Every structure is written in structure tokens, then in C-alpha cells.
Amino acid sequence: MLGEKVVEGKNDSDQVDFSQKMGTIPTKLTIVVLDSDLEMHDINVVYVSGNNFKPTGRHYFRENSRTRVIDLSKAEILRAVQFKYSNLPGGGRARVQVWMK
Question: What one-character DSSP code corresponds to residue 78?
């Protein structure tokens, strides 16, 4: 696991920062959502070089679910994964985890 954030909000944004794991060059990521339902509107992978990669589409998470494996377009050192999200009706605090493959 590269990192985790606890998120709560109707419409909000956050990021998982990887500065503590400098030197990590993953080729694939998976995002896991635990403890609540969540809609992920936008995902942005930010590299140390300043390049960005945005996987297409919205992702709807039921509690304790994950994305398909996201193939990254570049083999570069990660700086952060940013995301915009909103809680689904009946949802509460969700834990968003970013996993490397």
C-alpha cells in the first residue's frame, strides 16, 4: 500500500502524497475504498517530473470495493494521486487506499 486517506464530504477533493516513498516507480495502481460508498469523479496521477496521467471515466465504489488495475502511461517516480469525490446517499467516512503493483 502506498498510502491512505479518510475522506468525508458531499463534494470534495483530496490527495495521497508519496513524498515519504521517493524512488517508487509503479507501473500499475489500484484504488480501494473501505467503510462507505463513494463516487470518484476524477483521478489524477502526478509525477515528480510534473507530468500528469488521468485515467478515464468515473468510478462508483460500494463499501469494500476497488478499481480495476490502472496501467500507468509512464514509468516515473510518483508524487501524489489526487481525486475528486462525493459520498453516495447513505455514505459516511470512507477510507481511500492507493495500492501499487
Answer: E
